[in-house]
Model the fold of this input.
Amino acid sequence: MTLFTFLFFTALVGVLTWILTRKDDHGTSTGYFLAGRTLTGGYIAGSLLLTNLSTEQLVGLNGAAFKDGICVMAWEVIAGASLVIMALYFLPKYLRSGITTIPEFLEKRFDAKTRSITSFIFILAYTVILLPIILYSGATGLMGILDLKSLTGIESETTLLWGTVWFIGIVGSIYAIFGGLRSVAVSDTLNGFGLLVGSVMITVFALNAIGDGGLLDSLAKVKEAHPEKFNSLGSKDSSVPFSTLFTGVLLLNLFYWTTNQQIIQRTFGATSLAEGQRGVLIAGIFKVMAPLVLVLPGVLAFHLYGEREGFKPDHAYGTLVSDVLPKWLVGFFAAVMVGAILSSFNSALNSTATLFSLGVYKELFKHKAVDESKVINNGKIVGTVIAILSMVAAPLLAGQESIFGYLQMMNGLYFIPIFSVVLAGFLFKRAGALAANIALVGGCSILLIGYFVPPFNAWTAKPLGNFHFLGLVFAALMIFQFVMSKVKPLPQNWEHQYSGDVDLTPWKWAKPLGFGLVAFVVILYLSLADFSILTK
Done:
């Protein structure tokens, strides 16, 4: 029954996606890479959420909650505030430019070399860091939920890991390489509904497993047994100390939701600014509620399994799902979880193909008339090669202590330099290409050395902490670009030209809803805060 429901729901999403997108335009760059600018708020919200919500979130963040408690909700609720900034500040500027990628914007703002450097950083980071982590964490979660050892009779964990990684990678590649952005967005939305329902059910079933006096009574029982797990501020030894919310954690979230090509590409496909803002802010509402499915289950798992000797935090979610869900629902949830994995994988792969086709291939042949079909076909070839490389690399991540912590550390290597250059491009009207290019290359180099190269890491990331080190490097890059805008300024202020591609009339509820979301985040933190921990 488990295997049947898994295969049935997986096939159902594939068939419905094909029916809804079979007449789409896949023959032009705008059609293939931007869904023909036809995405409405619902598709944008669903695709944003499910591209983000994958097993590195479900498995990794619940594993972090198992260890540190609800303070790790920072990654989700700060994301909600970051989406407000995206909707009100960044998105109108991006749509004004009519861009397809972030590197394309940087070329308009600075020069072609800035675009090339940024495209290279994105492609390398997605290939080496993001895609393998998505595949590895997805395969690990799926192996636990479906109990693939028993189901397949294969005892070797290494063999199962390689097989599951390649299954997920091949199916995800088919969506991304042959379907384009709209296929990705539609499948995301369908899977997103299933994942939302399934994730809420897991929280409910877990609470029922803890006590029979009702959900709130069960929650009170867990809180009474482990009060330290319910402090939003966390301790200085937690993975997210409260002070980091104002440095590295904030900056990583801001980049992720305002500048990360993998995430924001679907907003570039919006039919209008109003639809884009609606989709981004709907996603923001769900993000501030996400701790119910991404953090609370980890705390409940600690209550159930915390005393087991040798129990690994990253096994908390898979074990909880397998234990508390009725068997006929396990296959359904495994299917939507695979959908979440595929969503993150195919979105990153689609973005990588977009970056190569429009940022590298077109740039190489900019002096020639390049046929649109050649641009798309080359993007598909590169996407296939990168998919294969990531499938080979993913199993090699086995043995990491915390896959979520590893992901955040590695993300900082390229998040911070790119975000500093985009923000400086908006804020410093006289900033030129030289400063931007130095900030990109220098920022990545400083972070790489500061993380991994002794004795420098003993003076930087180790004493400061990874997140404060990120904040310090970001501040230094911004100051450098500001100084350069005065020392070696552009001849005149940069003017942000309107491309005319998208209607820029804002959504009338954007500001009220945005400010309301930020207020909710502040209230949530205050209501769960034990301030005495700050004086200890």
